[in-house]
Amino acid sequence: MSDLSAIVKAYDIRGVVGEDLTEELVTDFGAAFALLIKPDSPSVVVGHDMRESSPRLADAFARGVTSQGLDVVSIGLVSTDELYFASGSLNMPGAMFTASHNPARYNGIKLCRAGASPVGQESGLAEIRDTVEQGVPSFAGQPGTVTERDVHDDYVKHLHSLVDLSGSRTLKVVVDAGNGMGGLTVPRVFEGLPIEIVPLYFELDGTFPNHEANPLDPANIVDLQAKVREVGADVGLAFDGDADRCFVVDENGDPVPPSAITALVAVRELKKEPGATIIHNLITSKAVPEIVREHGGRPVRTRVGHSFIKEEMARTGAIFGGEHSAHYYFRDFWRADTGMLAALHVLAALGEQDGPLSELTAEYTRYVSSGEINSTVDDQAGRLAAVKEAFANRDGAEIDELDGLTVDLGEAGWFNLRPSNTEPLLRLNVEAADEASMRALTDEVLAIVRG
């Protein structure tokens, strides 16, 4: 087998269907995953998104799992957080077939151990890759079985048990599902709640005919923003393709930074459990740890990436974690990320008071950020070193290298510069107290990176 490092990423397996990912290869991945988890579990739960290739790839994976004597519980068409719910509630390892927000020609596999515990490069993915590259050993015993199970109702009940909207005023909510899995899950989760849904692109279509299912790209929320203004909605929600991320716009159609959502949800969770630990990655706004401390919580800063967040949540017993990329993690959801649960928290917070969302979230938005700026560079390490040298002797500068290079200049702002794991890119995030300061710091760093 050829080198698979190009498609076995840091957190998942992902590639172009028919070129990188074939049914034969996916069957091998299923068998290798079965070998990895066989000592701990006799069964694997498998789900898939709405992409045209997903059902047959999920079936191919199931053939690989059963070829090693393990059973498969197929939960069919689900969102990624539903797969995590099934893994947690059934206490089984899981596999989700999705390429999230990637274009239609892509697909992939997100894997987890029982209890939705992540499988990344250092926790099993590299071993799976090596097994497939070297050739999966055959199994002489009885093959496993495949059974089907519907988890939708139990998933909805669990979410409703975690967020109470019974005291909420009725809210008009525009939801852009982007032809992704939100089109299936949103109607079921919102049924019976004081919510009037205005749907956009709820038809499941893995070709994404209206726009890419990546709400972090401003181009992909234009329709949502326009519809919110047109119908006078209280809030707009946009889900990515596999519906594990949720992006929010206020009643004016203005985007609400994911850091503000992290702070809002953190405050709500701290009311339930005073003094609890809240996780935030190092690109999240400084407002998040400030607000967590002000509400009696303990903020803990981590590297970027869901495996680091989940590991730190397990280590610290954290109740909640948030990332700048609109991934939100909940201890009561097996430390897995679920945009749907975050959305319910936002709706509950909005519905239990009379003011607009812009007024509510203003409490959690204290600084101006650049967003992520990518620069293509030939020498990532050299450019990072040049930036570090430029700021090392700056008065009051605090530098750390937890994940790339973070430089805190106090009132002048701070920035993080990280290399991409998969591309020749440096990713820059800058935050400051005002627009002018943020722009000045951004320009200074980019001049070194691109100079």
Automatic annotation (TrEMBL):
Domain Alpha-D-phosphohexomutase alpha/beta/alpha residue range list: 8-133, 153-253, 260-367
Listed cofactors: Mg(2+)
MF annotations from Gene Ontology: intramolecular phosphotransferase activity; metal ion binding
Top-rank taxon, per record: Bacteria
InterPro entries, per database record: A-D-PHexomutase_a/b/a-I (IPR005844), A-D-PHexomutase_a/b/a-I/II/III (IPR016055), A-D-PHexomutase_a/b/a-II (IPR005845), A-D-PHexomutase_a/b/a-III (IPR005846), A-D-PHexomutase_C (IPR005843), A-D-PHexomutase_C_sf (IPR036900), Alpha-D-phosphohexomutase_SF (IPR005841)
Keywords of this entry: Isomerase, Magnesium, Metal-binding, Phosphoprotein
Higher taxonomy: Bacteria, Bacillati, Actinomycetota, Actinomycetes, Pseudonocardiales
Domain Alpha-D-phosphohexomutase C-terminal: 372-446
Keyword Flavoprotein among UniProt keywords: no
Pfam families: PGM_PMM_I, PGM_PMM_II, PGM_PMM_III, PGM_PMM_IV
Protein name (database record): Phosphomannomutase
Gene Ontology terms: biological process: carbohydrate metabolic process
Record-stated family: Belongs to the phosphohexose mutase family.
Family matches, as SUPFAM superfamilies: Phosphoglucomutase, C-terminal domain, Phosphoglucomutase, first 3 domains
Organism: Saccharomonospora viridis (strain ATCC 15386 / DSM 43017 / JCM 3036 / CCUG 5913 / NBRC 12207 / NCIMB 9602 / P101)
Coiled coil: none
